[in-house]
Amino acid sequence: MEFNPILWLYSLIQWLLDKLLSPTPPPPKANLGRPRIAVIGAGLTGVSSASHCVGHGFDVTIFEAGDEKSLGGIWSRVNNTSGLQIHSIMYRFHPSIKWSVGYPDRQQIVSQITLLWKRYGLQERTKFNTRVNSARQDVHGLWIINGNPSLGRFDGVIAAVGTCGDPKMPHIPNQEAFKGEIFHSSKLDGKTAAGKKVLIIGGGASAVEALEFVVHTDAASTSVLARSDKWIIPRNAFVDGLLALNIFGQETIFSWIPEALLKRLFYRDLEDLAPDSHGLFTETPMVNSDIFHQIRDHKAEWLRGDIVKFTENGVLFRHRAKGVPKGGPGRETEVKGDMVIMATGYQRPSLAFLPNDVFREPYEPPRWYLQVFPPEHMSVCCTNCTYVNAIGTVGNYHIGIYTRFLLMFLLDPLARPQEYWMKRWIDMTSFLKSHAPTGAFDFFTYSELTYWFIFCVAINPFRWKWAPFVFLGIGSALPKDIVSGEDHIRNGLGMKRKYHE
């Protein structure tokens, strides 16, 4: 095998990150301490959050609605041809993860999640086939799952249900008349598009999944039928990282610079496909380099417009000129195809199992503290299931940081945020982003998220001692010793410490 210095360096970096930042897995049958955390969902976020908890010595129970085949969340349900669109260096959902390639596929990702689950002994702490319908606090402030104390009493809850639930499969008029095959973009394993004319309905992230399938199975041609223009950025770690450096998390007077560079250097002769109606920093862009190659090689086309109805041999499609809104006037033609892939996305999983007061306006999700902590219940953390749009990654170090924020709040009463100040932070962030074309929390970048973290530790001096633990997962012994000393003072004053609210 030929020596690759870049892969060798990447492997070395991953080895160092593991040695320096990975919490030590607990021994088998370890009796872990409080606070005790209920983790809802056994996907990437749930497994990562739980491994951080047990690695730092705190007990967890993972509740998963599906069986063991559901381990990995959305990655357990997508096609085998699906893979990571961003570089794996931006998808380090735990320090111990070791990628062997830059863009791992679905099987490699599920394998890493499973290894992490086993490495931290989470098999004995996972309850499969247990759908969570309610999480409520008892009179002592402890969380009870499904009204059943036998499932445990928990000091905190991590909701890790994600943003992708069951596939959306809308019915389009005259669909029964179509003579070809119709599949959802997540149900393509065992299928082939070889020699077929494929129509992809939808232009978002699910269209990327469909395009991967089309490329792998040698379709004769591909037509992407999109209702709106979406920003498409290259599958390039350097470019993606630069875009995530917009610390303001919104369109600014300088946003035209990356937009112009993308049009000039990436879109080039296909600039007409770039949106004019909205800027780059308003929604999650598609990350794909293949679509433009396919279009230039005349193997694919990108059509802007609306589906009118199915026909026997394809779809009646109303082409709209650039700038004409959805449902507007246009020229109708039949786009013929043998196979239709519905790239129509997924239903968002419900957070209705949480108490009703977390949904009260104006502090309903995603308008929460650090976007994941409802102000009424600082002992609840909803990692990766409240965001709407972003440039960055859902599978990186923020999972561990959010988990350690929750642990800090539960362990240290002086570092714990009060509802009033949580709401003031939300109001402040909303004010700072009041000129954003989206809502203040409807779009953010990874740099803005990092700023939120640093600000919320820096603003409270009692959190400073926790900074190495929160940001890097190291040094928890010292702040816990300090908190223990503070406990003695509080107990002497008749103030009883609680892990919960």
- Taken from the alpha-carbon principal axes, the silhouette is globular
Mean pLDDT over the residues: 91
Read across the widest sheet, the strand sequence of neighbours is 8-16-9-10-13-14-15
Give helix % range.
Answer: 25-40%
Ends apart, CA distance between termini: 57 Å
Largest sheet: 7 strands, mixed
Radius of gyration: 24 Å
Question: Strand content of the residues, in percent?
Answer: 15-25%
Low-confidence stretches: none
Would you kindly provide a written description of the structure presented here, covering whatever features stand out?
The protein is α/β, with parallel strands linked by helices and 501 residues long. It has twelve helices and 19 strands. It has helices spanning 5-21, 44-55, 106-119, 205-216, 237-243, 256-267, 290-296, 398-411, 419-432, 446-458, 467-472, 477-492, and strands at residues 33-40, 58-63, 126-127, 135-137, 143-145, 153-154, 156-159, 181-184, 197-201, 221-226, 232-233, 286-287, 300-311, 314-319, 331-336, 339-342, 380-381, 389-391, 443-445. A seven-stranded mixed sheet has the order 8-16-9-10-13-14-15. The chain has a five-stranded parallel sheet with strand order 3-2-1-7-17, covered by helices on one side. A hairpin with a 5-residue loop joins strand 4 (135-137) and strand 5 (143-145). Helix 2 crosses helix 8. The protein is globular, with a radius of gyration of 24 Å. The relative contact order is 0.13. The mean pLDDT is 91.
